[in-house]
Amino acid sequence: MNQHSKSTTQIIMVFVLLLGSFLSAFAETFLNNALPTIMAEVHVSQATAQWLSTGYLLVAGIMMPTAAYFTNRIKLKPLFLGTISIFLSGLIMSATAQSFTILLLGRLIQAASVGVSMPLVQNVLTLIFPAEKRGIALGIGGIVINLGPAIGPTLSGIIVTHWSWRMLFIALIPIACLVLVLGIFTIDNVTDTRSDHLDMPSLIMSIFGFGGLLFGLSQIGVSGNLDVTSLFEILSGLLVISLFCKRQLSLKHPLLELRVFTAPSFRKVALLAALTNIALMGPELVIPLYNQTIRGTNAMTSGLLMLPGTILMAILSPLSGKLYDRFGIKRLVSVGFTATFFATIPMIFFDASTSLNTIAFLYAIRSAGLTLVFMPLTTSGLNALPHSYLVYGSTMIVTLQQLASSLGTAALVTAIKLGHGFQWAFTLVLIIGAFCLIISATLKNKTVTEI
Are 191 and 380 a contacting pair, CB within 8 Å? Predict the structure, then answer.
């Protein structure tokens, strides 16, 4: 096979991988605007219905730490096809569910698949592209990671306004089938595998540690209250995670390689990636709530207000990767975090009379600013790691982002309830933006292997 044919084959394979990843990312938020409709049809409370979102995040978060093991242990083609098949079965179960229990079970099956497939695609992009081209590669991947969750509320608002909530799942079934068929013919086993031993104590501690932490945070995210039970779950989860971390450092082939944190640049980037995820995902939760409860808009209008920001994400994500490869991280984080910070300030003063155009404009500016830094940060951190640590580093960043998303949701919902309004939530997002701006000033412009 000549170089041109090999390049074309690789591009097609990456496209199929990204299409599968888009399904996973889209499914994370596409029920946000559909929960009231589901509550009315299946006769469940808001707290119960919320488990379609929080339960999804919980299971996906539990599975993510295992992604590095599966990437190292199983060849890419069967692993990718397996995760898509599991995701498809969950879609069918949810689409045909006659009770809330079956609907939720289908949703959790989707999440189990996504917990592996989301880090998998980023892992593959990291491995098959050299460091000097990794920025543009992950930037293109960022279209999927950013666009999926961002466009979810927009499309779901339109769908549930005109059709049944079941159409949300039904519409994804043929796309999942297409990805499955394309995957059979286009995915090559381009990643190296090894006969890693799955350390069962690590797996059990990972499930109970990350599961307990995420469950406690999700309980707060639903109720907005920090009660004794939630606090116990969070502290228990953190205790088990500390034991999990201690064990990983003693193993030759750990479930998660924590030695990635010995690279100073990776440590800073991992923290910034988590904070940036809160800054990005937080308003995607808060703004639809504000639009529908304070501004009185319907689900479709609320979704459309976020569309300009979504379009900017799609445009800027590959551009940000190209700019990183050319100029480094310093200019990007300076422009991106500054734009995010100043676009968040007016949100603190949102009220019932705030113009819808103003809401859409400020959300779009924030989306653009964060898109400029989101994937370049990941690239900068991974470039500080040797090749043997890339899969672990990529998995670690995705896992931390998932934990940060749950933490951010819990904190923002609590801020809304304690503050009796949305000003506290936007203030918290502003503070996170300020921390990002300060920490980013200490980053190296271009990173090289530090371990």
Answer: no
For residue 44, give the amino acid letter.
Answer: V
Q: Is the pLDDT of residue 263 over 80?
A: yes
Please check whether residue 209 is in contact with residue 61, taking contact to mean a CB–CB distance below 8 angstroms.
no
Residue located via tokens 């470039």: 383
Rounded to whole angstroms, how far apart are CA atoms 37 and 100?
A: 13
Query: Is residue 237 a contact partner of residue 213, using CB atoms and an 8 Å limit?
Result: yes
CA–CA distance, 299 with 310 (Å, rounded to integer): 16
pTM over 0.70: yes
Which residues, including other chains, have CB under 8 Å from residue 326's CB and lie 6 or more apart?
none
In whole angstroms, what is the distance from residue 109 CA to residue 93 CA?
9
Neighbours of 92 (CB within 10 A): 16
From residue 117, how far is each of 236, 298, 362 by CA, in Å?
28, 33, 32
pLDDT in tens, 103-148: 889 989 998 888 888 787 777 777 777 767 767 777 777 777 666 6
Task: Check whether 342 has a pLDDT greater than 90.
Answer: yes
Ordered domains of the chain (ranges, CATH): 3-440 (1.20.1250.20)
Least confident stretch, 74-83, 166-175, 293-302: 293-302
Quote the CA–CA distance of 408 and 362 in Å, as a whole number: 20
Distances (CA, A) of 323 to 327, 333, 379, 426: 6, 11, 12, 30
What's the rounded Cα separation, in Å, for the pair 436 and 285? 20
Phi, psi of 97 (to 5 degrees): -60, 135
Q: How far apart are CA 387 and CA 168, in angstroms?
A: 40
The 3-class secondary structure across 200-251, one letter per residue, is: HHHHHHHHHHHHHHHHHHHHHHHHCCCCHHHHHHHHHHHHHHHHHHHHHCCC
